[in-house]
Amino acid sequence: MNKLILLAAALLLNMLWPSKASALVCNVSSTSVAFGSFSPLTGNTVDSTGTISISCVLLTSYTITLSPGGSGSYTLRRMANGGNFLYYNLYLDAGYNQTWGNGTGGSSTVTDSFPLRGGSRDHTVYGRIPLASQRNAMVGSYSDSITVTIFFL
């Protein structure tokens, strides 16, 4: 009888706790950080936001990293319009203090987790173009491509 109770308790715990063999089901989406068309007559900075959304069915932790884009540097990222460039950066915080990157070159990453039954999380990406030092940049539309990488832990 005691063996039967222990077996039932073990089976119940096994059903409640996801095993390592369970498939992790997550969805990831993002919205662009769109600054609009550049004009040197704009104020000292141009700010914009985007969102990285993650939803998972099971308990998991994750880390989000962003690539440096076309500049290859987290110090200042660089958007291009043909042979013209406009410098900007992406941040973790609304104060524009923590550069979002991969943890190298002075950049930081985001690490978060979901409760036992999963859920969803939105992470805001704060973008800023410092215009004070770029007043002579060409007017136009600039772009850059950033790769979002999510490591499920």
If you had to describe this structure to a student in words, what would you say it looks like?
This protein is mainly beta and 153 residues long. The protein has 1 helix and 8 strands. It has one helix at 2-16, and strands at residues 26-31, 45-56, 61-66, 77-81, 84-91, 110-113, 119-130, 148-152. The strands form 2 sheets. The chain has a 5-stranded antiparallel beta sheet, with no helix packed on it. A 3-stranded antiparallel beta sheet has the order 6-3-8, with no helix packed on it. A hairpin with a 2-residue loop joins strand 4 and strand 5 (84-91). The chain is elongated and about 50 Å long. The model is unreliable at 1-21 (pLDDT under 50).
What's this model, at a glance?
The chain has 153 residues and is mainly beta. It is 10% helix and 38% strand.
Map the helices and strands.
Layout: H1 2-16, E1 26-31, E2 45-56, E3 61-66, E4 77-81, E5 84-91, E6 110-113, E7 119-130, E8 148-152
Antiparallel strand pairs: 1-2, 2-7, 3-6, 3-8, 4-5, 5-7
What's the pLDDT, averaged over the residues? 82
Distance from N terminus to C terminus (CA atoms, Å) equals 40 Å
Number of E-type strands? 8
Instruction: Report the radius of gyration as a whole number of Å.
Output: 22 Å
Low-confidence stretches: 1-21
Helix proportion range: under 10%
Bulk shape: elongated
Q: Secondary-structure element sequence?
A: HEEEEEEEE
Main sheet properties: 5 strands, antiparallel
Strand content: 35-45%
SSE-based structural type: mainly beta
Count of alpha and pi helical runs: 1
Strand order of the largest sheet: 1-2-7-5-4
